[in-house]
Amino acid sequence: MPLRLLYRRYQLPFRAAVRTAHGVWAERTGLIVRLENDRGRMGYGEVAPIPWFGTETVEEAEAALKVLGEWVTPEQLAAVPAELGCLRFALAGSLTALGEDERRVRDNPPCLPVVALLSAGRAALSQIAPKAELGFRTFKWKVGVGDIADELALLDDVIGELPPGAKLRLDANGAWDRRQAERWLERAAEMPVEFIEQPVAPDARGADDVLRGLAGDFPTPIALDESLVGARDVERWLAAGWTGIFVIKLALLGDPMPVMARLAAAKADVVFSSALETAVGAKAALRLAFGWAGKPRALGFGVWPLFNNGVFDGPFGAAFIRFDDVERLKPEAVWNALN
């Protein structure tokens, strides 16, 4: 039977602008989609693109939804092009929700650890102790935002503020060239740095070779983030034998189940991370993260409260996110708030 497909666009200011190597990000724009079957059951999904990562734009996803129309079949949804990965994720999540048995038994851990996000620059120093008191033991510092010499000089101070046994992730968002990345990796080698995330931009000249070379020359692991825009990128790096870490923003990867299965079969080292989505996309992504059977690493989902209106936020879990809190998220409330 055909399914009824509706969508609503959102444009939500962040409580505080997000500062990265790509610039200042002040608001989140995306789409909430809803599928309804002939029994009146509804499933929700979220289109949360990040165009500077290489995803489709909101406008491109919306244009594709208009072409699909109000009444669709699962076959039509499955035929949405792979280039529209964020839309495919939203539609796959909606279909999954339609087919769920609310009484089924879940075999998931009760909670998962979360990484503490630190501001770029010197502001990070005053944030570590309060977060450590909340129980955080993995911290993520945005680098590649200011002058490299200033940031390198701050690294010792940031490390010095960490509680005993804690680890630091450095996220460059592709801001460095090879020589700059080498300087950071040389400094990080003797420090409690868990990994360096995307040191070189994926569109830099020879980026794949540079990333593989850096990973082979230094002991500190390297994580791919912006290099993984869609399922094809994941497959390409797996086929190339990448032994570093995969930072997986599920909201960007299209239909997530084949990607998850492929990563699991390869015994990949995975970190699941937020795309700064609303509660709709967060619920879908976190359910998948809780079902991952691989090596556990702290989730990159410590982003909430993110929006001025709390109805749009995912679970605020301090140092841990509980599975029960994920299940309590109400996509219908987000849908209604956009009316």
Descriptive notes:
α8 (231-239) runs parallel beside α9. It is built from twelve helices and 13 strands. It has two domains: 3-98, Enolase-like, domain 1 (2-Layer Sandwich), CATH 3.30.390; 111-330, Alpha-Beta Barrel (TIM Barrel). α6 links the parallel β8 and β9 (193-197). With 339 residues, the protein is an alpha/beta fold.
Please tell me the CATH architecture of the largest domain by its name: Alpha-Beta Barrel
Largest sheet: 7 strands, parallel
| Helix-strand topology string | EEEHEHHEEHEHEHEHEHEHEHEHH
Amino-to-carboxy terminus distance: 27 Å
Quick one: overall form? Answer: globular
| Rg from Cα | 20 Å
Strand order of the largest sheet: 6-7-8-9-10-11-12
Identify low-pLDDT runs.
none
Q: What is the CATH superfamily classification of the largest domain?
A: Enolase-like C-terminal domain
Task: Report mean pLDDT, rounded to a whole number.
Answer: 94
How many distinct beta strands? 13
CATH class of the largest domain: Alpha Beta
Count of domain modules: 2
Percentage of residues assigned to helices: 25-40%
Secondary structure elements and their pairing?
Layout lengths: L2 E18 L2 E14 L5 E6 L10 H11 L2 E2 L1 H5 L6 H14 L12 E3 L2 E3 L6 H9 L4 E5 L5 H14 L5 E5 L6 H11 L4 E5 L9 H11 L4 E3 L6 H9 L5 E4 L7 H10 L3 E4 L6 H12 L29 E3 H5 L3 H7 L2
Parallel strand pairs: 6-7, 7-8, 8-9, 9-10, 10-11, 11-12
Antiparallel strand pairs: 1-2, 1-4, 2-3, 5-13
